[in-house]
Automatic annotation (TrEMBL):
It comes from the Bacteria. The gene is dps. It holds the Pfam family Ferritin. PANTHER family: DNA PROTECTION DURING STARVATION PROTEIN (PTHR42932:SF3), GENERAL STRESS PROTEIN 20U (PTHR42932). This is DNA starvation/stationary phase protection protein Dps. GO terms for molecular function: ferric iron binding; oxidoreductase activity, acting on metal ions. PROSITE patterns: DPS_1. NCBIfam families: PRK09448.1 (NF006975). Residues 18-154 form the Ferritin/DPS domain.
């Protein structure tokens, strides 16, 4: 295993948290790609606003991915952020590739943001239980952004 750049966290906890980080990295990668899939293919009233919003959301998701991956390597692990790992390890439902209607994309994305947000919050609890408050804080920060972006996306849907 590569060198760790932290102290005060036992090896068993570090390994547990590294696995946890990689699991959520897979979800974040899958979610980012789902957002881009919608961005590229949506059509309908309000197109430009949602299209541009999804570009911004994808950028924020990539920032979260980067933060998770870097924490993995700081803890002495390997970040596993390939599309292949995301496809096989993500807890998120596969995103449909045949949708066009904005409303359908909004519903599909909102559902996935809710699921990933829940998984990120559970990861925060697990990191806390493992004795890694820094990783817990990282997940809390990411969950706030996931929730906010879920709101931004969902507010475009039918009332």
């Amino acid at each position: 295993m590569p060198e760790a750049f932290v102290s005060g966290i036992d090896d068993q906890s570090r390994h547990k948290v590294i696995d946890l980080l990689n699991a959520r990295l897979a979800d974040m990668t899958a979610l980012t790609l789902a957002v881009k899939q919608a961005h590229w293919n949506l059509k309908g009233p309000g197109f430009i606003g949602v299209h541009e919003l999804l570009d911004d959301v994808a950028d924020r998701l990539r920032d979260g991915q980067d933060t998770i991956a870097e924490r993995c390597t700081i803890l002495g692990g390997q970040a596993k952020g390939t599309v292949e790992v995301a496809a096989s390890e993500s807890s998120m439902e596969p995103y449909p590739t045949d949708m066009e209607a904005i409303e359908d994309h909004i519903v599909a994305l909102k559902d996935r943001f809710l699921k990933v947000g829940e998984m990120i919050r559970k990861a925060a609890e697990t990191a806390d239980e493992a004795g890694d408050p820094d990783t817990e804080d990282l997940f809390v920060e990411i969950s706030r952004q996931i929730d906010k972006d879920c709101w931004f996306i969902g507010a475009n849907g039918k009332q």
